[in-house]
């Protein structure tokens, strides 16, 4: 009976050691995954920050371009009015002659 218990305990010990080895391997694999995911997350955050900076830069450039367009449209409008006045003055001078 004692020998049966000893062999049973030896079997349980062997099984526990196998389980321990399996769990340690799983821990190593999971730690590797955690490291990879952490690196991926850090890289994603870095890329996100770069994209945000690029977006801000492009928005500034867009605002500048829109301001220039507005300024040029105002200048064009002003010049068109001056041209119309010059044409009117020329027509007036021609009709006086």
TrEMBL record:
State whether keyword Ribonucleoprotein applies.
Answer: no
What are the boundaries of the signal sequence?
A: none
Q: Which UniProt keywords apply?
A: Coiled coil, Wnt signaling pathway
Residue ranges of coiled coil:
6-96
Q: Which GO terms describe its biological process?
A: regulation of DNA-templated transcription; Wnt signaling pathway
What the entry lists under InterPro entries is as follows: LRRFIP1/2
Entry superkingdom: Eukaryota
Q: Which family does it belong to?
A: Belongs to the LRRFIP family.
Protein name (Swiss-Prot/TrEMBL): Leucine-rich repeat flightless-interacting protein 2
What gene is behind this protein? Lrrfip2_2
